Each structure stands twice: as C-alpha cells, then as structure tokens.
C-alpha cells in the first residue's frame, strides 16, 4: 500500500510538471530525474537545489520522501519573482503539504547561516554562481579562489558523506572550436562554461572526494543511448553535457 501511494504521488508530480510545461514529456522527464539522482537515496534527507527555477528537482526530492527540500534561486530579488509564482502553483498541484520551500536569495548569502544538507544539486547553474569568475577561471587566480571559496562554503553546509551533483555543458565542443552556433543549442555561449575536469579539480581541493563524470545524451535515446553514446568523444560533437557527482569526506 505504501509503494502504491508513492507511485501515485510520483505520477501526480509528473502530470503537474508536464501540464505546467516544466518539461517536454513524461518519459523524458523520468529519464532526466534518473540521470540527475542516479545512485542517490533521497528518503529522509535534507536536499538543496541551487538555481532550481520553479522547483522541478526540489519538488521531486520531496515527493521521493526527503525530510526537507529547498529551492534556492540565486539570481536575487526581482529576477526570480515569476519563478516563485510558478513554484507555488506547481506545489499546490502536486501536494500543498510537501516539505519543500522556495528561497529568493543568492546561494552565498543563504549558506552563511548554519545549515546541513545530505544532497545539494546544481543543475545547469554552476557557471552562473559567479559568471564573471567562471569565464576567467583558468587564467585568473582571483577567479579561481572565488570558486574555491564557494565550493568550500557548499562543503561546510553538507553532512558527512553528503552528495554534491552538478550538470552543465563543457567548454570544449566541436561547434565552439569552429566558432559556430550549435544546431542543438544555438544560444549557448561556450566561453561562459568550463569543462568538468576543471570543476572536478576545484571540488577535490575544496574537500570533496570520489568525483565522477558522466556524459549525457538526448533523453529521447533512452538508456541504450546513454550506454552506447554517453562518452566524451560523442558528447564533443553533440551538447558536451555532463553530470558531475562527488561526496563530502566523512568526518573522522
């Protein structure tokens, strides 16, 4: 009976997300969620979604049994006012009693308080946490230090063995090398991104361990597509999109 109730809650979440145009179709959304949270148990955990928009991932965590889920939109006051309305509408449709909240703040100011999370996810937003520093990351020691400080702040906000997951597009791409617009994502500005190896090195220096990188493929290709095409070479000619996961070291 409990499993049936969980399935019904997940179905209601999927239906609401599609109805409110937060994702394209149910099958692709399920694959996307499996990809983001692969190997991570959300039950009874405290989850933080950085740059979570209308709450797609935070709401999913709550539906999956998270003790609490927080969607922080780091663009600050004003820019996320419309997203708050979408979030509240989404939550009211899924379940108004879910332990999930929307916070309109930068992640830096939000994490200044004493907070502890088991899972922190940053989907397609890691470069926006400090876009100016991201652009200069490999050439400017000050920019590197800004991100090291930010990752250190995130690390300190996590419980031992907590998960940090980030997704984004890497800078190295076939179309970027030719100074061409990507037919897959014509609006992407490649110079405002960094390759996952760069982020992995910074995370390790900031106290994370076991950093792994997975390359994504279009959801429409399904699991077989991820197995056959989910590698760096293929990604270079497509979206250069990756999932990076790491864990906070256990305290002695």
Describe this structure in words.
The chain is an alpha/beta fold. The chain has a single domain (2-168, 191-221, 242-248), classed as Vaccinia Virus protein VP39 (Rossmann fold, 3-Layer(aba) Sandwich). It is 41% helix and 20% strand. The chain contains eleven helices and seven strands. A seven-stranded mixed β-sheet has the order 3-2-1-4-5-7-6, with helices on both faces. Helix 4 (81-94) links the parallel strand 2 (68-73) and strand 3. Helix 1 (2-19) packs antiparallel against helix 3 (56-63). The chain is globular and about 50 Å long. The N and C termini lie far apart (40 Å). The mean pLDDT is 89.
Fold blueprint:
Blueprint lengths: L1 H18 L6 H11 L9 E5 L5 H8 L4 E6 L7 H14 L5 E5 L2 H4 L6 E7 L7 H5 L5 H16 L1 E12 L4 H4 L18 H10 L2 E8 L6 H8 L2 H6 L3 E8 L4
Parallel strand pairs: 1-2, 1-4, 2-3, 4-5
Antiparallel strand pairs: 5-7, 6-7
Helix pairs in contact: 1-3
